[in-house]
Amino acid sequence: MSSERVTSDLLLTLVNTRPSENGRVDQLDDVPGLTAWLAGAGLTVADPVTGADVAAARELRDALTDILRVHCGCGDASAAEAEAYLRAVAVRYPVVLRVTVDGVTAEASQTGIPGVFGTVLAAAADLSARGAWPRLKLCKNPSCHAGFFDKTRNQSGQFCGAACNSQMSMRAYRSRRRTAPTP
Ligand SMILES: [Zn+2]
């Protein structure tokens, strides 16, 4: 697995804890939810997770979601509020640079939950350094809105997968037929 994949996967697993009309349930709605997400992401913390951690995780998730919404050009999405929020929390969850012969990587400078959030921000920095940040998008199917990594050559992907693609093509076809003049 490439490290680009690893960093995008971490961000996507966070964004995709959001509920959706097509069946995803909110996985970050309580302490057990956040604990399970941490375990699934391989990010274990020594201290017990608190309700405040859950609230902070949701805020970070929702701000990142807003950025991905702009990446997909969904509606008239604006990320100004999310950018301001992320600028503020980046101070709370700082990352440091590790400079080696092979390259420079960003890493969280703290442990515990602040370290986890720092790792999330470091993953975003890593994707951005690879020029892949705009490829992290939300699916344009309104009943889905899952985060996905756009692998298309010209960065034109709009849907998280074939199912959403065909569902939306079908919907567009039907609405064209409805509006077509009858002979
Ligand atoms: Zn989708």
TrEMBL record:
<dbReference type="Pfam" id="PF07336">
    <property type="entry name" value="ABATE"/>
</dbReference>
<dbReference type="InterPro" id="IPR010852">
    <property type="entry name" value="ABATE"/>
</dbReference>
<dbReference type="Pfam" id="PF11706">
    <property type="entry name" value="zf-CGNR"/>
</dbReference>
<protein>
    <recommendedName>
        <fullName>Zinc finger CGNR domain-containing protein</fullName>
    </recommendedName>
</protein>
<dbReference type="InterPro" id="IPR021005">
    <property type="entry name" value="Znf_CGNR"/>
</dbReference>
<feature type="domain" description="Zinc finger CGNR">
    <location>
        <begin position="135"/>
        <end position="177"/>
    </location>
</feature>
<dbReference type="InterPro" id="IPR023286">
    <property type="entry name" value="ABATE_dom_sf"/>
</dbReference>
